Amino acid sequence: MERDGFISYSHARDRELAQALQRGMHKLARPWTRRQVISVFRDTTSLSANHDLWSSILGELERSRYFIYLASPEAAASRWVQKEIRFWLDNRSPDRILIAVGSGTVHWDPAAGDFDWSRTTALPRMLEGVFRAEPLWVDLAEVRRSRKYSLRQAEFRSAVAALAAPLHGRGKDELDSEDIRQRRTALRLLRGAVTVLSLLLVTSLAAGGYAWQKRGEALDRARVSASQALAAHSMELADTDPRKAAQFALYARETAPTSESTRALARAVDANSSVARHLLGGLGAAADYMGSGGAAATQVAVSGDGSTLAYYSDLGGELKRGGGVHLHDIRKGRAMKSLKAQWALGGGALELSADGRILMLETAYNRIQIWDVRRGKRLRTITASEGGDLAQSLRRLHAYALSRDARWIAATYHTPGEEETQHLTVWDVHTGERVDHRQAEGDLRLSFSADSRLLRALDASRGELSTWNPRTRQWKSAGRLPDIPAEARSITLPGSGDTALFGSTDKAKAELWNLSTGERLASATGSLQRAALPADGSGPLVAAQGKQVSVLDSKLRRLRTLGSFSWAVTSVAASDDGRWVAAGSGDGAVSLFSTDGAGFHQSLPNEERLKAGEFDTDGGVAYRSGPKATELWAVSEGASGFRRLGRIPRPVPEGDTAIAATSDGSRVTVVDRGVFSSWDPRTGAQVGKEKTFEDYEPESGQGLRLFYLPDDIHVVTAWSSDVLLIDTRTWSVRQVLAEDGMIQPLLAMSGDRKTLAAVDSTMGDVHVWRWSAKSRFEKVVTGGGLATAIGISNATISHGGERLASVDADGRISLLDIRTGRVVLSPVVQGPGPETLVLSRDARTLAHAFTTDSRSGLELWDARNGEYLGQWALETPAPPTDTTKPALQLASGSGGDVLTLDSGGTLLRRSLDIADWHAKLCRIVDDPLSKADHDRYLTDLTVDAPCKS
């Protein structure tokens, strides 16, 4: 009997994953009436066997149509796996090899047309040079790590569908749709059974009730299945089409609030972190035509002051909207009245004045329209030449510029009868009068200076720069730059004209030049054909690299990615300060980005110049201790991030020392080796007398912790095996919360300061108290079950005291529901930094900071069930060489926020609230699913639009 596939894997490492992969491929898209559709062989016998074993394996290989290699360094080194691969290469086509990466790395080098063997560890070298093109391979490393081997899990389902599709002879999406169809077939049959049973309701009420219950269960299963399929597709699209990823994640959550839909929301938030608004969705396919000269059909423009965005497209949503130039008020975040204008086929000039009031638009046949944006009125049309009489390739403006004050327009073009001659003209925008005209030679690029006093014309072919003065109406040569790249296919000039960016597709290289000094400032590999430079010639650059829009530094190094499109970017524009960036793609999609984090992850000013590793957070206060004084801050709401409280004239060193602040920050209390004292940080003066506790010695090892209670009078601290409640007015002990047998108690306090937990860091026992109206603590929980390993290194409580999270020295997170006493354990966290745990305000999400050799970021977990929700990688400086200092620190913010501070001083506010993720995604993309997508995923289901107006 012929088999569809043969799974080759390392028995020592990947037996469980191989079994799950085989089971998933058998189940996917299986009709409910059949046991299985395809047959995939997996050897389950011992590899220390004899000749008979190899004979049986050889027979299965001969009968198999596809070879599925479960890649890992162990499999690559296995002689049995190598024998199986060698047989396949000798007797079958390598095109029938499918790769699933369980561990290790796989990297394809497009330039070499082979795997990058310097970076690939999961494949045997016998595959070198075997493949003519990149083979199908999927990444199961994250699935293997989380051990979520279920088709209800988005990433595992996606990988199984990708591998099973060739075996079925179908596309992946078609197979996924078939799986959903089979589930719905079963649902329809069940509905039919319910109908029949309903007719017998009079005589069989019990049976009818049972059927109704099963109908509800079937509907729930169908909704869960549809939600998981939507979430899986959202995860697939996150890197290539963040807009669609957000849309699918929202619908997945609306269909059923599964762990997969939550993870898809988190991934969509990260993919859209710099997006202010998705204005147009793309077609997802090329148009049936190309414009004049193959020019871009999607164009964007942003006013210098960042107030207005203008855009149009021949493709995408414009086909439905009926054309027109659309306007968006960036500051108010809403659409303005569109202009009833028609641009040139294939695109063309689109420029806004610095204040966003005047728009320049190129229309057909070398005509320029001037529009009053606020009134939506066309002021005049300027005719450069009778372009309709020209050859198609010459029927457009070749270079153009609008002065920032909207007083002058300059353009180069051809005229009928003089096709070999290029003309350069300057017009007065107010009157439409031609004020200067000359024949132009070479490949010119035009730009006006930031003060609109000079027009610069750069001849890219000869490196000559000349200027025109509007006041004198005279041209002047500004020198020759002989070394600039003459092969450049794109040139970007900022308003200042002092720098220029040259891009070449032929050599895939970009260069930044200073036009005043003739100095090459920077160069980089890769084409930067669409770019925007800051108006003053300084600050970061914004450029399109294929399908991505990125922020670059002055050395043309990528700082971060703003967003991605499913098609190549055709137009980029930015405000003068670089805060607002717009981009349009080849399939008509248009998006607006914020470079300062005004989107999901808000960038905050760091006026105190704090950096990760330079301060500590404890007791509701952040502090940086020096040899003679300690500076103090409170985590604040709004746009400041940290609010300065003041300083006290004494150090607060690490060890048997702790500090806490009142809710308003007017008083801090310090305990230092048994001595308690209070201070006013605003004046630096000590408040009252200090008190020495001679009868108690702090337990070292976990670090002393101190917290104020809601009355701002009492503090609580752990001392030896006891927990003490102390009145700061008299330094008297008001209550001793003693627990027999407690070793090294680790304290945690809720954000509202009403719930206190003491965790036995050695045994994992937990004791929880609540602050009562009698100004005393009352016990509410005594329990255990927290993972301890070598010892618990940190614990935190949610703002309202609903949930406690702890992490042990092995990186295992424990999540305790304080109301029920239920404990769930998460997989091991990614990297060092387990001391930084933050729960969202609604206690539904947990964030953990991680740092590896190459990156830092947040790992996210579902605080209710321990499900892994993914990572938010932070584009931060390299981790510090001093490994004792963290590269990333977290602090609880206002609402459901968390503050992240990296080793470079970048301070961001990020939301951990799932409801906030939903609301923010709805603000950037609120259009419904297309009919095709709705029919594919939601047929027979009633699902409301997730973004209700």
Using brief descriptors, characterize the structure shown.
TIR_dom, receptor, WD40/YVTN_repeat-like_dom_sf, alpha+beta, 949 residues, Methylamine Dehydrogenase, Chain H, four-stranded antiparallel sheet, Toll/interleukin-1 receptor domain-containing protein, WD40_rpt, Rossmann fold
Task: Describe the structure concisely for a colleague.
Helices cover 19% and strands 36% of the residues. It is α+β, with helices and mostly antiparallel strands.
Characterise this structure:
The chain folds into four domains: 3-169, Rossmann fold; 175-255 and 927-938, no CATH class; 282-596, YVTN repeat-like/Quinoprotein amine dehydrogenase (Methylamine Dehydrogenase, Chain H); 613-738, YVTN repeat-like/Quinoprotein amine dehydrogenase (Methylamine Dehydrogenase, Chain H). It is built from 13 helices and 63 strands. It has a five-stranded parallel sheet with strand order 2-1-3-4-7, with helices on both faces. Strand 21 and strand 22 form a beta hairpin. The two termini are 58 Å apart. Mean pLDDT is 82; it is low at 45-50, 287-296 and 317-322. Residues 2-147 form the TIR domain. This is Toll/interleukin-1 receptor domain-containing protein.
